[in-house]
Specification:
This protein has 166 residues and is mainly alpha-helical. The protein contains 6 helices and no strands. 30% of the residues are buried.
């Protein structure tokens, strides 16, 4: 088998579940990278959500204004909502191109279900992140990480078993 044939097999929708999960991870990594970049740029430049003790601020030596916890939490929710729309669209495109077989539902229903499942994951993950800021006084970065872990599990299960063919 040539390298081209092997690559074509990996990129097809008909792959072993382990390969499918690896591809899901790669597609999810691309969508997550989009999410992280957009979220932190928004939180730094447009809708301030970073505090001076945030690891991202320290790592990149960013200048941020002081924020009270309520404003930090509120801006976390706004920035998560905006990045949800962008990164979820990236995830949808990558999932239908490389991971899951579309066609279980009409395109419109599939797209709607994709956003519904992602919306549930978003509400759970963002609520968890906001709660960690409010009650445990964690950084925005820690809240974002907790959000990502919760969302990963919910999204994979919903996409695999509800939205796409398998």
């Amino acid at each position: 088998m040539t390298l081209r044939e092997r690559l074509r097999g990996w990129l097809s929708h008909d792959t072993h579940p382990v390969i499918q999960f690896i591809k899901y991870g790669i597609a999810g990594g691309c969508a997550t990278a989009t999410d992280i970049i957009v979220f932190f740029l928004l939180s730094w430049l447009l809708i301030p959500g970073l505090t001076q003790n945030d690891p991202i601020v320290r790592l990149f030596h960013l200048n941020v204004l002081p924020l009270d916890r309520l404003t930090q939490e509120h801006h976390f929710y706004i920035n998560r909502s905006l990045t949800f729309l962008v990164s979820n669209f990236v995830a949808y495109i990558l999932n239908i191109l490389f991971v899951f077989k579309p066609g279980r539902h009409s395109k419109l229903k599939e797209f709607g279900l994709f956003y519904l499942v992602s919306g549930i994951a978003f509400v759970v993950g963002t609520g968890l992140g906001g709660g960690l800021i409010r009650f445990l006084h964690l950084t925005t970065s820690a809240a974002f990480l907790a959000n990502m872990v919760a969302s990963l599990a919910i999204n994979y299960a919903g996409r695999k078993f509800i939205i796409f063919k398998h």
